Amino acid sequence: MRITVEGISEGQPIPGQFAFAVPHAQDHMALSDNRNPRVTWDGVPEGTRSFAVVVVDPDVPSDASNVNQEGKTLAEEMPRVDFYHWLLVDIPAEVREIAEGEDSDGVTPRGKSTGRVEKGVRGANDYTDFMAGDPDMKGVYGGYDGPCPPWNDERLHHYTFTVYALDVTSLGLDGDFRGGDVMKAMEGHILDRASVTGTYTLKANV
């Protein structure tokens, strides 16, 4: 299989319009366009019955105590965990494209709905947990929300966009399912996959 994420090249910075936040000189960061990029794929294996699109950042600090704290930095070598930015499953076998802005167009305070949309079923991304302590932003964040790494993080973050070709029409997931649920449900059903990884940071000189 082959995947194309328009505007994102392997190992290169992700454009700001696809991010949740962009750098800001006075406030460290400002909310951005938060549009999902256009994703297309081809070279689909025989027997494909559905697709899943997953975006994950493996560089998120495991301890959030000092995230975005004045006078503190997050060391590059500190332990890291996966953070899921996009979960779209049960995409019909005939689909080959998610258009730019189709699953996210702007930051939506308190999140977006999970469940069925035109081209699949949305899961809950990890902003659901990250925003839980903010009374103005807390909620369930369905579908795509783009990069917003800590502005005091010394590590460059990597965002891997992957499309999976699956041998089932549905993964049987519903409600506010999460990244781990998707990865477990796909076990034994992946016919092929294709990925591209872009980078992002809000910290100068990283």
TrEMBL record:
> InterPro entries, per this entry?
PEBP, PEBP-like_sf, YbhB_YbcL/LppC-like
Database matches in Pfam families: PBP
Recorded hits in Gene3D superfamilies, A to Z, give:
PEBP-like
What's the name of the protein? YbhB/YbcL family Raf kinase inhibitor-like protein
